[in-house]
Amino acid sequence: MPFQFLPALLRPSKPATARERRFDAAAGGRRGTGMGTFQRINPEVGAAAVQVRSRARYLANNNPWVNQGVANWVGSLVGTGIVPAPRHADAKTRSELTEHWRAFTDEADADQRTDFEGLQADVTRSLVVDGEAFIQVVATDRSVRLRLLPCELVDESLTRELRGGGYIVQGVEFDAEGTRVAYHVLSARPTSLFDGYAPAVRVPADQILHVMKPLAAGQVRGVSWLAPIILPVSEFDQLCDALLVGCKVAAMSAGFIVNQNDLGDGSDPFEDGASLEPGALIRLPGGYDVRFNSPTQASETASFIALNLRQLAAGLGLPDHMVSGDLSNANYSSLRAGLLPFRQRVEQIQYGTLVPQFLNPVWQKVVTLGVHSGDLAAPDFETNPRGYATDWLPPRPMQVDPLKDTQATIAELEAGLTSRRKAVAERGWSLEDLDAELALEKEKPGDA
Q: Fewest beta carbons within 10 Å, which of 77, 103, 155, 281?
């Protein structure tokens, strides 16, 4: 008879005797109740990024610890500027590329406030404080100019579906294949004192550079790097204010005179005041006692404040001394050990975020426009475009012992582990310029 196996399948099964397994991290009860959750990244960012950015800006400009942490992040990531080292095989072409790039860097800022190295610092600060940076690429007849845009000008309130399968997420437009095709930018003037409303302008994606370090796959807009410490910093500020007020109040009084036999008659033998002088012996009336004020807040909370500063440093991803400035318990070995994982993180951001999202696109646009305008002689550009790529070399971290650092570089050169070009570029110089200067000094030693 067909389907005779159905009764057996429908029969209730016996409960499993296997040991129960589960993740404690998903449990409820006393340990799990009240713990926050984090859902899909873009709705979370869309709901929180504006408030987080506003608070982060406030702290970065008002809190001394956060201000120092942000400044040290910017200094560690770009320093005096990340410089290119062209890869082209021909030395003359490399020299021409370097000269053409220098001409661009001097006038890179469309607002004429700084040069390209200064823009690197501005972009990095925006990346740390706001969580993202937008750079408008303004093409001229012979070169390009860069203008840093406030993050709020890319319309965060604009999210909707478009015809043909495209869509807009927080001001960023994608086509049906998920490729960024445009940014919707609100018009604003630097002199505007009040917010106004005007429809967002659609700017093609090739005219906007969007720099951000995503927290999760598919993330469209950035979140301030200060997000993990915003609430702890606020609490820490209140703690420091309370301690300061307590110490000030305690310092206003030396002690208190207590009448242990107070009869309530209003008499006061010290109504003219009692003063303490060096070596004085003061006779007190019967029944009176003096209790001196001995505040202990500062000594009791010093270790707690240090713990909070370490927590803030961990939230910022910085070594302790780069937030607190305290090197009292540090030595040469501990500093080097603490800086190694930090420098690894710095390189990860430099080569994983700044280079592909900001530096490489700018280099490509500058070189391409230079070739097309005729300012840059590149006979094999069309047939060998990859030959016109570049490596980006950040400045070498400053060393406590420069002699040891120089000896290490010499050892690497002798062992063939690095090149003179890379070693020189890490110091912010061009190898061709250095060799030319050295040759000139040999020819005219008196002019050196």
A: 281
